[in-house]
Amino acid sequence: MKALLLFHLKVGFRLAVRSFVPLFSALLALIMLDMYPAALVASIARALFRSPPDNVYLLLTAALAFALASWAAPRATHGLNGWLRHLPIGSRPNRRGVLLALLVVQLPLMLSLALLASVAHSQGIAVTALCLVRFTLVCAAAAMAAMPVTRSSISMPSSAVAALLTLSGGRWTLMISAALLVVTETFSGSLRNPRRGRTLKPAGVSIELRLCWRALGWRILASYGVAALPLGAAALFIANNELTGTLAAGAARFGSSLALVLFLSGWIDKLAVRRPVWPWARSLPWSSTRRVLSDALIMAAHAVPVALGCAFVSGIAALPVLLLLPALVLRAATHMRRLPERQTGTGGFLLEGCFASSLTALLPWTVFLGLAASPAAFLAAKQADAGIKATRWLERRHLAVGDPLSWSE
Fold first, then answer.
1. Which residues contact 85 (CB under 8 A, 6 or more apart)?
2. Among 149, 177, 319, 394, which residue has the least CB neighbours within 10 Å?
3. Which band of pLDDT confidence, cut at 50, 70 and 90, is reported for residue 42?
4. Does the model's pTM come out above 0.85?
5. Assigned domain for 398 exists
6. Cα 216 from Cα 247, distance rounded (Å)
7. Quick check: 325 and 300 in contact, CB under 8 A?
C-alpha cells in the first residue's frame, strides 16, 4: 500500500512540475503586463481573503483547480492497465492513490494561494484557517470530479455541488461539503479502464496517396507557390499589353502550361528524394503498371488546380492545358524514376515541358498529338519502373579524390 501511494505521489509531482511552468508563466505575464504589478497582486490577495471574498475571483480559482485536475486525470491513469494489474491491490487503494496524485497536481495553485495569503496578511487582512480550508476543499472537489470512475455520473455532480457550497458558505457549509466529498469518494466506484488507442486499419487502395503525403507534407505548398509565378506573369502580361483574342489565349496557354511543368518538376524532385524505391515496396504484389498509374493519377489530381488556374487568366485557354496534362504527368512519372541516376536533376523534364508549353501556346492543336503519344509515354514509364533495382547503391556526387571513405577512389 505504501509503495502504491508513493508511486501515485511521484506521478502527481511530475505532472505538477509540468503544469507549473505554463501556469507560472501565464500568471507572471498577466502581472508584468499590468501598469502597476504590485498593486494588481495586492488587489487579487484582498479580493480572495477579505471578508466576504469576491465571488468572481473565487469562481476563477475554482475553475483553474477543475481545469488542472481534468488535464491531469487521463495522464495519471494512463498506465493503470499495465503492470499494476498483476499486483494484489484492490480497486479502492488504487483509486485513492489516483486521487492523491490529482491533489498533488494542484500544488502550484495551492502555493500561489499561499503566497497571496501572505500578501493579504501583510496588508492587515486577517487570513483565517477557514479561508485555507475553503481552498483545500475546492481542490479536493476538483480532484474528485476529474476521477475517471465507473459512477462518474454521481461523483461529478456531487463534487461540483460540494465546491459551490464551499465557495458560498460559512463554517457549517464547509462541514456539509466535506461530508459530501467523503460520501462521494466512498460510493464513486472503481476506476474505469483506460480507453484503447485508435486501431490501425489497412490503408487499402489509398496507401500510395498516403505515402506521397507523408513524403511531401507541407512541401507541396512550395510547388504551388512556384506554379503561381508564371500564372501571375501571364495575367500581368495580358493586362499590361491589352492583349485580346488569339494573342491573349496564346499567352495564357504558355503561362498555364509552364506553371504545370514547374509544379510537376518540383513534385518529382521532392518525391524522388523523400520516397525512393526501397526493397519493401518491391515485395508488395504491385505491378509496374499499378505503380506508374498511381503516381500519374496522384500527380494529375494535385495538378488540376494549377491547370484550372488558367481559367482565371483566360477561360478559353483552359481546355488545351487540361488536355496536355496526361502526357505531362506520364513523362513526369518516367523522369522521376531516372532522377537518382542523373546529375542534371529535373533538367530533362523541364526541357521537354518548356518545348511542349511553347507548342501549346503557338499551335494549340498539338495537344492532341500529346494525347496520342500518351500510351507511348506510359510504356516508357513502365519500362523505367521495371528497370529499377531496389538494392542499388548510388554514391554521393562529389570528388572521390582525397575521400578515404569513397569506394571509387
1. none
2. 394
3. confident
4. no
5. no
6. 37
7. yes
